[in-house]
Amino acid sequence: MTAHLVGSFALILLAAWFSGWPLAWSVAGSALLLGLWLLGLVRRALDPRALRLLPGHALLFFAAGRTGCVPALYLWLSASVLIFGLMLARPWGRPLWAILWPVSMAAIHQVGATKLVGSAFWAWTVGLGLLGLGLTAREMRTILRARGDSC
Q1: Of 17, 81, 93, 97, which one's alpha carbon is 20 to 30 angstroms from that of 148?
Q2: How far apart are alpha carbons 94 and 81 in whole angstroms?
Q3: Residues of 27-46 as b/e, b for ≥16 C-beta within 10 angstroms?
């Protein structure tokens, strides 16, 4: 777990430093990522989910910056703020975790679709749509099977 924590911290710094966003967006993104990292450390025993997902969120922030995809940045920012809210609203916010998968898939779609046209675009869109539906269904099943602290 220590290697994951150190690696996540390093990845956050690298993603913010080399993302290519203007300074204000890089600072906002790194502040959100570091805030999630710190909140994940504090609440690790209650819900380790944020620490597990943090490398993916850092890479998505980096990829959105490298492609210059502003809609992906806005989706990423909304997902990060939602994660903060859900971690603090526990257990009442548990069913809302399923919302994060479609938002994340939409941001990934925006990043990946910047140069795609025609059938490649549609293959990317359908593939991510199916993946997003599958992940959302899995999350809903996990939520419905959870004991005790679900809504």
Answers
A1: 81
A2: 15
A3: ebbbebbeebbebbeebeee
**What DSSP letter does each residue of 32-98 carry, written as one string?**
HHHHHHHHHHHTTTT-THHHHHHHHHHHHHHHHHHHT-HHHHHHHHHHHHHHHHHHHSTTTTGGGGG
> Which pTM value belongs to this model?
0.74
Tens place of pLDDT per residue across the chain (151 aa): 677 778 888 888 888 888 888 999 999 988 988 888 888 777 766 666 656 777 788 888 888 888 888 988 898 888 888 877 777 776 655 666 677 778 888 888 888 888 888 999 999 999 999 998 888 888 788 777 775 554 4
In degrees, to the nearest 5, what angle opens at C-alpha 28 toward C-alphas 22 and 33? 125
